[in-house]
Amino acid sequence: MTSLLSVKNLTLSTTLDKKLLVDNVNFEILEGESVGIVGESGSGKTLTALSILGLLPKGVSQDSGEIIFQGKEISQADKAALQDVRGNRISMIYQDPMTSLNPMMKIGRQIQEAARAHNANDDEANVLKALQDVGIPSPESCFSSYPHEFSGGMRQRVMIAMSLLLRPNLLIADEPTTALDVTIQRQILNLVDEQRRNNAMSLLWISHDLSVVAELVDKVIVMYAGRIAEIGSVEEIFENPKHPYTAGLIGSLVKRKHQQKLISIPGNPPKPWTVANQCGFADRCAHVTQECRTSKPELVGEGNRSFACFNPMKGALL
Fold it and tell me: Which domains are delineated in the chain?
């Protein structure tokens, strides 16, 4: 498969005091591939995704790195070039749809404005078809309603319809099911997966929950303290994790079949800027050595399988 997006040596920090937030991140998404980024809060997942679209929050800057999309470097692109990419070739679904939808504007008009911004078809019939495609039972009623008249799950469906209207090449989803109950969460996961396959899109799904990405993605990127800890296929990550942090995340999942005792990771994740030249997981790792505290492990491996650990796990998990 052809490379769609390539992030190379991405480093982000605070603008004023240069506190490190994301440290030398590298990964690739192929055309039609579904990729998940997982990690605890503060690991750099969302900032990495926002940097792809040039939407870093105020006070955060890109110090180095390249973001190559469809063969072109876009991290230094001008406003007009980024406008052509955002919402058109790359779309993003956010965690809380109420912060993305205008509460004073009817849903149909909001979707039409998104289409007009990219000179796309904004006919009402096209918008109604988009709403119908994401499982909204009464698209005509939704078209003329305000966001507050719908549940969280329905608002998220509206956001998905808006994101898919222009048939993007890449859909970025930043924990869009976190605030939803389990039943609605499953519906949204199935919907995104169905739409991705129907439209031959690539997907970047961001989550703190490994169990959510397990059934949705082909490849998993594990982030910790602003760095990538491990990259591998879903099968490799779940069956044979190499980084102790990845193994800890998997060990903390509920296992219905085996009824094993849940494993917790002691301590709390450090702030990325406090890690310096050592392994960020050193203070929480049962396999730590002196080398882990004095040197920074780099990603090693071949192809889609790599990990940043001096003492990788051995053997498959049961």
Answer: 3-104+161-217 (3.40.50.300)
